[in-house]
Design brief:
The chain is an alpha/beta fold. It is built from 13 helices and twelve strands.
């Protein structure tokens, strides 16, 4: 019999990609619990709206009563927790939602799951998994020549976002250590790909380029991130669910470190070919250096050898192949972009970039 899982945050960027692939692969029923914040879009799930194996529930991971009833009703064999406030810049403007969802919400989710798991019959208790999706940002910032983050790197989160994710990771760890809850944690680098909300660097740059707006680079643009194509991340999560050691942490990365300015220039070059500007100039002319992010982490880099050695996972996409797929998706899905960049999005862009001296809205 196919299994049922509960995915939280499955209307967001990575969660939606994960849900779509899970259903496409025929892996079973997905109960998708999402609060539908500004970042959650049912637009991401239109292709599965009539699929009986997708059950969407509008709700909050902090609502323990709702979770308890969902767990009783659907008897899942696993929970995959994507739900979070995820944008560093927003956490700088207003950290409270990050504490509520990422810390308090994860706590309530863990409490509901612990009670459900404790009542399962022994065989089902053995099979059950709670997979927590986290970030490389919990490890803090690296200097240029430091070795990449391994799973034993000490935690040193620098933004309200990463601090709240670090707190949630610690709670998950404690629920395994104290109560024996069969947890798994993945710490991943920067994802990119289809359905990425255009407040993050890559989709924002594609969106602004096509709209003839400035392409804002914080500070010098020399900060380095490791980029992972989103479906590679989803495959890693499926692999960890399937074969990960209970209580373990797995770092997931793309082996693609790049300074932000290089990412933006690559996007401009690609767009110059695929969708040339009417005036024949390069999109690179739209690059604008703006005020830096407060406390901007210099470099993230993931050492993904543990998951490669122990579970045989490696990313399939290179940055070149992944970024091409991403640009193509955005060019082919301009309706999606228009639908998700209305109302609240405009308000955010105005507020966030006006403070940096840019008029991007
Ligand atoms: P996202 O912001 O696109 O989506 C988050 C989703 O969670 C949205 O659908 C939102 O509506 C939902 N949500 C928010 N608060 C909720 C709550 N209280 N209850 C239920 N649902 C709620 O984020 P994403 O980029 O898809 O990231 C997913 C997860 O992966 C997050 O936990 C994030 O920390 C982690 N992560 C992201 C990246 C990245 O590059 N995007 C990298 C590493 C880890
Ligand atoms: P972002 O996509 O917000 O992801 P994160 O902060 O989680 O790494 O940003 C990626 C990098 O790009 C980060 O160093 C900040 C930078 N950045 C810009 O230079 N300009 C922008 O407009 C945005 C949104 C980000």
């Amino acid at each position: 019999m196919k299994k049922t899982i509960i995915v939280t945050g499955g209307a967001g960027f990575i969660g939606a990609n994960f849900v779509l692939e899970w259903l496409k692969l025929g892996l079973g029923t997905v109960v998708n619990l999402d609060k539908l914040t500004y970042a959650g879009n049912l637009e991401n799930l239109v292709s599965v709206r009539h699929n009986p194996q997708h059950i969407f529930v509008h709700g909050d991971i902090g609502d323990q009563a709702l979770l308890t009833s969902l767990l009783q009703e659907h008897q899942p064999t696993a929970i995959v927790n994507f739900a979070a406030e995820s944008h560093v810049d927003r956490s700088i403007h207003g950290p409270e939602d990050f504490i509520q969802t990422n810390v308090v919400g994860t706590f309530h989710l863990l409490e509901a799951v612990r009670a459900y798991w404790a009542d399962l019959i022994e065989e089902d208790r053995q099979d059950f998994r709670f997979l927590h999706v986290s970030t490389d940002e919990v490890y803090g910032s690296l200097a240029k020549d430091d070795p990449a983050f391994t799973e034993t790197h000490s935690y040193a989160p620098n933004s309200p976002y990463s601090a709240s994710k670090a707190a949630s990771d610690h709670l998950v760890r404690a629920y395994h250590h104290t109560y024996g809850l069969p947890t798994l944690t993945t710490n991943c680098s920067n994802n990119y790909g289809p359905h990425h909300f255009p407040e993050k660097l890559i989709p924002l740059v594609i969106h602004n380029a096509l709209a003839g707006k400035d392409l804002p680079i914080y500070g010098t643009g020399q900060q380095i991130r490791d980029w992972l194509y989103v479906t590679d991340h989803c495959a890693a999560i499926r692999r960890v669910l399937e074969a990960g050691q209970i209580g373990e942490v797995y770092n997931v990365g793309g082996w693609n470190e790049m300074p932000n300015i290089e990412v933006v220039k690559t996007l401009c070059k690609m767009l110059d070919v695929k969708k040339p500007r009417a005036d024949g100039k390069s999109y690179a002319d739209q690059i604008a250096f703006v005020e830096d992010r407060l406390g901007h982490d210099q470099r993230y880099a993931i050492d993904a050898s543990k998951i490669a050695k122990q579970l045989g996972w490696k990313p399939k996409e290179t940055f070149e192949s992944g970024i091409e797929k991403t640009v193509n998706w955005y060019l082919e899905n301009q309706d999606w972009v228009s639908n998700v960049t209305s109302g609240e999005y405009r308000h955010w862009v105005q507020k966030q970039y006006a403070e940096r001296g840019e008029e991007l809205a």
